[in-house]
Amino acid sequence: EDMYRMDETNCPRGKLGKDRVAGGAGKRTQHQQGGANRETVMALVTICADGSTLRPTVIFKGQNLWSEWTENNGWTDSEIAIEWIKTQFDPQTREKAQSRRRVLLMDGHSSHFTEPVIQFALTYDIIVMGYPPHCTHALQGLDVVCFAKMKTELKDAVAEFEGLHGNPVAKGDFTGVFGAAFVKAFTEDSVLAAFRATGIHPYDPSVIKPEKLKPAEALSVKSSFALTQTSPVKA
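Given the sequence above, the corresponding structure tokens read:
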């Protein structure tokens, strides 16, 4: 109950991806009304090995924060990393820990392991651990399990909002739409699966197979040119 993992993901405000729609016969292309916004919003999600989640942190792009963006209530750089651990992670986990040591697993970004972050963690008995380079595809449970479901739920939530209101999702609407998707995606079962699938809890190194840790190799030998090329180009 004192082991946590945090990761960040980009969330689109517009409706992305392809859908199947019903339309008039004889038309090869069908059109669906919806927002075309391609701006993304950063979300920081923290999950616990007991199946619970912390309140997510949503980060909008821009120099100034409008209060209406948070009524429904990109980084991470080093300044916001220390701000997050001080004002979000520590307050939300301190009472539950009851003076026990807490463990926080994060990607090995340099912004996560600055001197202020490490000093704060040492002061408040928080062990901050980073994944080895190029291993998050196997070890980061949020990537392995949770975020794919989150993107599906968010896509559906955006489509539902646009269909209901006839408007694209504005920044002032986003936290409400994101929150509805978050609740559906981050269930106790999915959070527990994120820890189990990566062997973190219950601790099981055998789930990480050797092939997952092999260095990346160039496996594609087929050309992807739209037109047939001459022999030298093919080679």
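Helices lie at 78-97, 115-123, 136-139, 141-165, 171-185, 188-197, 231-234. Try to locate this feature in the token string yourself.
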